[in-house]
Amino acid sequence: MTRLRDRFAALAGRLGAAAGDPPAVADSLLAAWGQPARHYHGLEHLADCLARLDEAPGSAAEHDVIAAALWFHDAVYDPRTDDNEERSAAWAMHALQTLGVPSEVCADVARLVLLTRHDSAPRDAAGRLLCDIDLSILGRPQAEFDQYDRQIRAEYAWVPDEAYRVGRRRVLQAFLERRPLFQTEYFRRRYEAAARANLERAVAALGSAA
């Protein structure tokens, strides 16, 4: 937690923060990410996304804007609503503005957060990298993917099995039908084949569920 808090404070400085209290904003974000009902979309997911960004190619300036978007992309997460990305983007805009980050940077971070709805292919390099990072769990080893799948089910524990099966199958099938699934060469080379195998297996299991 301390490492993440310090990381956000340093990031805010690189983005041009000239006011406010970056550690306090970090604490608010960490409290949101740390909510106990977040079985998957929690602190581990945030830390993993930042680690994937650290490994990816790209300029330092581009990485900083993407890092800010990663910090905010699931800052608001309520599986019972469908406006999480919009509310997270609004939080990003407000929080970064209070820190004195330049308005164009605030707007770009908010724009990137909205891309994590994953309802269309990003058109810019930063958006493609951000979305690939967020979806990289799909291409992890089978045991890790299966754990993620169980964690998502736990986040939707109130949904009856049949309704969940239908909805989850629709989501995973939509990802499977994307060609390619990953938009950057780096993530495509690293995760595409495994992601397709994981998704095909998960979709088949959901299709045969009672």
How would you characterize this protein structure?
The protein has 210 residues and is mostly helical. It has one domain: Orthogonal Bundle (Catalytic domain of cyclic nucleotide phosphodiesterase 4b2b). It has helices at 2-14, 22-33, 43-55, 60-73, 84-98, 103-115, 125-135, 142-155, 161-176, 185-207. It is globular and about 55 Å long. The mean pLDDT is 96.
Concise description?
By secondary structure, the protein is mainly α.
CATH topology call: Catalytic domain of cyclic nucleotide phosphodiesterase 4b2b
Name the overall outline: globular
Into which percent range does the helicity of residues fall?
55-70%
Poorly predicted sequence stretches spanning 5 or more consecutive residues? none
Would you tell me the overall average pLDDT?
A: 96
Distance between the termini: 42 Å
Helix-strand pattern: HHHHHHHHHH
Tell me the fraction of residues in β-strands, as a range.
under 5%
Label the CATH architecture: Orthogonal Bundle
CATH superfamily: 3'5'-cyclic nucleotide phosphodiesterase, catalytic domain
Radius of gyration: 17 Å
Q: What is the overall number of helices?
A: 10
Q: Structural class given helices, strands, pairing?
A: mainly alpha
List keywords for this structure.
0% strand, Catalytic domain of cyclic nucleotide phosphodiesterase 4b2b, single chain, mainly alpha, globular
